[in-house]
Amino acid sequence: MTIEFKDYYAALGVKKDASADDIKQAYRRLAKQHHPDLHLEKDKARASDKFKEINEAYEVLSDSAKKAKYDRIGPDWDARREPATHPGAGEASYEFRQGGQGDSFAGFSDFFETLFGEAGARGFGGGEAFQGASSKGQDEEAELPLALEDSLQGGDKKISILAPILCPVCRGSGRQGNRFCPACAGVGEAKREKSITVHLPKNIRDGMRLRLRGQGGPASRGAPAGDLFLRIRLLPHPAFKVSGSDLEATVTVMPGQASLGGEIAVPTLEGAIRIRIPAGTHSGRRLRIAGQGLGKDDGARGDLYAVVRIDIPGRIDERMERLYRELREAGS
Predict the structure, then answer these.
(1) Axis crossing angle, helix 44-61 with helix 64-73, rounded to the nearest 10
(2) Which DSSP symbol is given to 136?
(3) For residue 167, what pLDDT is reported?
(4) What pTM did the predictor assign?
(5) Is residue 214 a contact partner of residue 139, using CB atoms and an 8 Å limit?
(6) Distance between CA 92 and CA 251 in Å, rounded?
(7) Which of 73, 183, 288, 294 is the most buried (most CB within 10 A)?
(8) What is the C-alpha to C-alpha distance for residues 90 and 305, in angstroms, rounded to an integer?
(9) If we measure between CA atoms, which residue out of 237, 270, 224, 254 comes closest to residue 314?
(10) How many CB atoms lie within 10 A of CB 296?
(11) Considering the chain, what percentage of its residues have pLDDT values greater than 70?
């Protein structure tokens, strides 16, 4: 039977020179993404296959001894043999160990069993735990939707997030004996809803990332938790369009105001203000109101543009009709 070579680096999406921390983070990200319990029933089989693939890849690449052996053998492994000295032999011969039967590898491939045998499973070979004794918890990232008004004011804001906690079954190890923990599927974490208070700076911008120290992934054995990074997403607003740090609002003007000029009310994020419009204002004209936009990188604020829309009354009396007729005759 031909046994297919498994590219464990490709399975985790990492390069061959990736650090142990990079390998761990790639595994945890993919394990969460492909966890079968997070998929619809019709997608569970595909997710389960992918989950087994990345678990097997992590089983090898997270263990220095297995990784060294895997790197030494390489893609042309079927044409090579591991050196093993036999008693009485004058020189080293080369052979693979054949893996035992049964469920020791929790669905690992024939390629894994052929390379590492029964002792290669972490429960038998004593490989390093899912989380090292001094390994900091993983950094997490979440999105924080904000109203435009909140982005200006800053201050403390209470939010609820699904926060990671150590899996209560395996206590963060990701293992139960020689198997991946069935409760967390090897991730070492569970989720629970948690309320936290975030201090927002003033004039916060869309896409800004806020760092909350110690609010990220947990760590076992007393190591510090990771950090939580909140990515700001400004929500659509019913009265304003956003263009970078500038805002745009539509204001309705009557024909007499547009022709003769006068004062109109303009909405801002901090309440309505009144501005003067010049005589002869046409529909579509943009009136700039400096410093009434959103926060900028330099700490200043963008501008607000009031876009004029000329409207006419839905009903007019006899006097207004007479005036409109006179205006029409004067303009003809």
Answers:
(1) 100
(2) P
(3) 83
(4) 0.55
(5) no
(6) 88
(7) 294
(8) 89
(9) 254
(10) 14
(11) 82
